[in-house]
Amino acid sequence: MITEDREEVFIEATESSGLKIAATVSALLITALVFVGYAYLRKRQAQSAAAVQRAASSQPKAPPQALILVDEALLQGRNTVLGGTVKNISNGKLAALSVELELKRRTGGTVERKQVTLSPADLDTSQEGRYSLQLKAQDYVSAKVVALQSGSQASVPYTLAQGEKRPPEKLESKTIKVDKPPPGKGSEFLNSPDNPARVP
User: In three state form, how does the secondary structure of the chain look?
Assistant: First the structure.
């Protein structure tokens, strides 16, 4: 009887170690499959992005017909003034021009687009027109030029450049006068070797 018990213990030990080995091999196999699948999907996505980029770059771009000089935003009280200059650098006349701005809201991060007409809206060769938009400063966090429209929907190719810089802000000089403490007990140290005090 003693030998039969020993054989059962030996059989149980080999079965549990076999299960551990099978579980380890299965876990390694699943991990390898997940890694290979991830690498494959990443490579496929990179190839499709490269193909889209090549297709976009292979299309010929029209030469710019206008130069947009974007001024730095100005703060006037609680409002922000966005503006700039559009210069016609083409050989023809550009009519009914408007600049399309993309505005990002502070709350929620939503994006909205606004069209701002130029003054004057029709530009001959080398003529300039200005655009300006006044917004509440607390409503929007950023703005950028996204399109130049001629007429109702015709898009005009353009280039962007830095316009006028914001003038330096005038800081008010404020003089603060601090009175000297009166001579006597007010100028003595509260805690000195001659006058020790207990700190709570």
Answer: CHHHHHHHHHHHHHHHHHHHHHHHHHHHHHHHHHHHHHHHHHHHHHHHHHHHHHHHHHCCCCCCCEEEEECCCEEECCEEEEEEEEEECCCCCECCEEEEEEEEECCCCCEEEEEEECECCCECCCCEEEEEEEEECCCEEEEEEEEEEECCCEECCEEEEECCCCCCCCCCCCCCCCCCCCCCHHHCCCCCCCCCCCCC
Report phi then psi at 68, rounded to 5.
Answer: -105, 120
Instruction: Specify which residues 142 forms β-bridges with.
Output: 104
Q: What confidence tens digit (pLDDT) does each residue in 128-168 have?
A: 999 999 998 888 888 999 999 987 667 888 999 998 888 88
Q: Quote the pTM value.
A: 0.56
- The 10s digit of each residue's pLDDT in 52-61 is 888 766 666 7
Tokens 């997940």 map to which residue?
A: 34
Residue 133: exposed, middle, or buried by beta-carbon count in 10 A (0-12, 13-18, 19+)?
middle
Per the listing, tokens 């003054």 go with: 119
Cβ–Cβ under 8 Å, residues 141 and 106: yes
Cβ neighbours of residue 136 closer than 8 Å, sequence gap 6 or more:
78, 79, 80
